[in-house]
């Protein structure tokens, strides 16, 4: 095959469709029937009993369906079990409802069956719902590998009323994950690093990433107050859109860099395992700004994080004793060959990461 070496493409990827509203769950059956006559829906085990009746009501009369209680991990065994259930029932569309692991299981099973997939996030704790990525775990809960999927979800259906009723910590964590989107995309823009499509991002990707940051800065505090009141008000509507859609497009199409690399390093420590993805990413954002020497922006972001209940010190994510040997473990993982920290517009060493993390004690 001849390879064209003169074309230098840029690219972006998006979910097929995105619908957001208070009460959007009621649209699930109506939307599902566009993809087939029979659905297999996997529901997060933590909310299965709470949502079972609502999901059945939404699907009844629109499609034939089977409900499956998710087992807890997005593991190869769980993915295979869901795929086998969907295959044996003759499903024409797979639906995932819940948090990230349930959604990723649905996405991976649909990939294996070559079926369309609908995801219905019930928290806005990360930008994973819109992505063509499933994080696969071992049965013991440790990360096994990232599975890059050929397609983004066909439909992301976001019920903001459900998300507003979830614990506020999840929304705050999603703000932390979304906070990384602009800073990492901007690093990739300046360095010319590739995005998740293995090519530089288009201009739209960086503008979406910038708008994501502006949105959470403007509406973050008010959105948490609305979530405290379990109300899907105007601020939480904007922040949910930023956490899920804007950040999802921004990270896949703009690129990722230091913040998520440092997150990967932090995950090597037992101290942080009970903290949410976005909480650890927040520490990565702050450390990344220190690495770049952007002190004024560091102070701005730190103050914002405090206002939206996000961690700003290592102790806030359980690292009460940040010995250099412990930070060296983080830095070694973050800086290993081929890691995304090397998407930064300057060389980053393990010593630079240790120094940046030390500044957060």
Automatic annotation (TrEMBL):
Cofactor list: Zn(2+)
Superkingdom, taxonomy of origin: Bacteria
Transmembrane stretches, start-end: none
Catalytic activity, as annotated: glycerol + NAD(+) = dihydroxyacetone + NADH + H(+)
Enzyme class: oxidoreductase
InterPro entries (alphabetical): ADH_Fe/GldA, ADH_Fe_CS, Glycerol_DH
Lineage, opening ranks: Bacteria, Pseudomonadati, Pseudomonadota, Alphaproteobacteria, Hyphomicrobiales
Ranges for domain Alcohol dehydrogenase iron-type/glycerol dehydrogenase GldA: 15-160
Protein family per UniProt: Belongs to the iron-containing alcohol dehydrogenase family.
Keywords of the record: Metal-binding, NAD, Oxidoreductase, Zinc
PANTHER family: GLYCEROL DEHYDROGENASE, GLYCEROL DEHYDROGENASE 1
Organism: Rhizobium esperanzae
Protein name: Glycerol dehydrogenase
Positions with a binding annotation for glycerol: 127, 177, 260, 277
NCBIfam families per UniProt: PRK09423.1 (NF006941)
